[in-house]
Amino acid sequence: MQEYGWLLDVYIQDNTAVLWIKREDGSLIRITDSYAPSFYVKPIDWVDRYQILQSLQDYEHTKAVAEEDKIVSIAENTKVKLIRIETRSVYGFNILVKRLSKDHEVYNADLEHVQLYLFQRLRIEPTSKVAFEHYNGRLLWMKKLDDENIVEPPPFSMMRMNMLYSMHKGKRELHEIEVYDKSSVFTVKKEDLIDYISMQNPDIIVLPKCDEVALQLLIDNKLSISRVDEQEQVKRQGSWGGRILIGDSIIGHSAEQWGIAGLVERARFGFLPLGIAARWLSNKTIDSRNCYELMKRGYAIPREEYFESARQLCELAERDRGGINVTPEAGILHQNVASLDFDSQYPNIMLKKRLSYEDPLGNYDSLGLIAIAIEPWLRRRLMLKRIRKELKKGSKEREYCEQRIDALKLILVTSYGISGCCWNRFGNVLTFEEINRYSREAILKAKYIAQQRGYEIVYCAVDSLFVKKNGANREDYESLAQEISEKTGLPMSLDKHFKFLAFGKLKSNGVSSALSRYFGITFDGEIEARGVELRRNDVPEFIKRFQAEFILQLLDHDSIEEVIDKGLVSAKKVLRDYLSMIRDGKVDTMQLMLRRDLRKELDKYKVRTSHSMAAIQLMKEGKDVAVGDTINFFFTDHDNKNPACRVRTVPEVMYDSVFYSKILMTAANSILEATGLKVESTKDYKLGLC
DNA sequence: GCATCCCATGTACCT
DNA sequence: ACAGGTACATGGGATGCG
């Protein structure tokens, strides 16, 4: 009987492929499929070939041995006679690969088994909508159904939880679990958790420090997880018994930011199970897509094919340069500025110029590996952007759409980033440099065209151009972008139309302005900022709120005269209000917390940074602190000689009002300095302080 | 002997 | 194990001062 559903998870267990499918009625079904792992080996000569074939004939681990013609290098593209070894088990596979790879080139040998199964046998991306049939739980056939135009993600349910610990006889113990439901939070006792999970029956469970916590939970609850390979299952691919377990912070985003839609997008691009797609970084994810595309085309995957030739230093200096930029004038308030951006500049360059690892200069017209891997996804992202325009702001559909767009953006940008990276199996520095060269060329051309049309260049960086012209309106800027698109062959569009815009001064020398540090207000009345305090994650909420308010009060006016007359006055009032709030000790300490990530083990810190000191305090209180944790702390005595006495993690002591006044002033000053607006003297405010 | 400046270094965050 | 860039604290040594 034919059934329909979505491919929730796939993994290899006990030498069998296990597929979990979420059916349309919401039920979950587990189906198995046979899997015989295989790889290739290249004989050195005919004697060697004979020996390999002989030695494997009746070997206990081999199921079948055969010769096949395969392409083994993207650079050469010619077929080579390889020996294909099909093994009886994952164990046998590992033994044979280890033995043969000592003296031979082996192929398809360093991919995960689930990848080999998906690429060679199932050939359907996990999370896809599928039609299938099974007999007694054995897969008979499965077909991918098209759901490419549906913005809504598959109906996978997600549950997010947080662990609360308590101290018991000097030992840290899991006490209860906080579970986040759509809008509410409630706690579940440890012993009730498994019942609760069974009741809610989520497909995806999001939990902090996924692997350790998940394993411990399952072991604590004696849930048939004693077997080593099941523990491996959880650790390596984040799935267990039809549920996907992922960490709460995934590749730079939280699980919510990705959303199921974003994760599905990543899984489909990587041709990977959701749990793996959620934990693998971009290099591996893109490698996965590359390998799939190559295997589909008759390639055997080499262990490494990274290319970098030795070159003269002067040649390097000439070629290996990043994007150019024109430093903006700081200290003045620009009016009527437009920012024009090349859309997906790097991916478009790679495609248009046919640049790829194997053809770094784009000499041949054929589609290279990079284009093969990303072209469909660049097109898909454009389609999603078109769909987004039709979706209402704040609607669920729009959010799904945006999650997909963001996930693809990361993949596309990263495919440029890894093009010349030595960790990339197929990487080639020449390709990377050539992309940069075209990027420079394009932005130079854009600059030239804008100047020809009488626009003043305010700022120009890798893929964006800030221009202004007296009396120019939105349509003028749009047609300029249009012209640049046509002449460079790379799509460019108007991003923001600023009423007022200012660039931050470089803190190090105070003169030239900083790259990518600006703020302004658009004609839609929206504040836009890059790089300044209010955009920084480690700055206290109170300071960020202040700076946003300060900029709004200063710039939300119709003319520069009004900014000077009214804006400056009301902004100064905001500054005074916030300063007195700090001075009077009225600010909620939670609003003054700095957040900083612990990026290595505590004992590895050479410098006693404030957040590492805070982390030590937390540890002494019995909290568990680990790499990757975000430390929340605030300053109680910033100038204390002893770094350990400067900070606190819990708001039991009064904050250091001098310190917070100082950074508030800095946040205000960097705005005023950037605009060049004269305040009599910022010392005035300091007087009010002491 | 102590405060202050200078600067390399370490660390984290942003685009 | 994406690249490239900035900001800013720390702490040891140099310098200044009494």
List the helices and strands and how they pair.
Blueprint: E1 3-13, E2 16-23, E3 28-34, E4 38-42, H1 46-56, E5 62-71, E6 79-87, H2 90-101, E7 105-107, H3 113-122, E8 129-135, E9 138-145, E10 158-168, E11 171-180, E12 185-189, H4 193-200, E13 204-207, H5 210-220, H6 228-237, E14 239-240, E15 243-247, E16 249-250, E17 253-254, H7 255-270, H8 274-277, H9 282-296, H10 313-319, E18 334-342, H11 345-352, H12 369-390, H13 396-417, H14 429-452, E19 456-460, E20 464-468, H15 474-488, E21 492-505, E22 513-522, E23 527-530, H16 541-555, H17 560-583, E24 594-597, H18 610-620, E25 630-635, E26 647-648, H19 657-675, H20 683-687
Parallel strand pairs: 10-13, 13-15
Antiparallel strand pairs: 1-2, 1-8, 2-3, 4-6, 4-7, 5-6, 8-9, 10-11, 11-12, 14-15, 16-17, 18-20, 18-21, 19-20, 21-22, 22-23, 24-25, 25-26
Helix pairs in contact: 7-9, 7-13, 9-12, 11-12, 11-14, 12-13, 14-15, 16-17, 16-19, 17-19
This protein binds a DNA duplex (15 and 18 nucleotides) through helix 9, helix 13, strand 22 and helix 18.
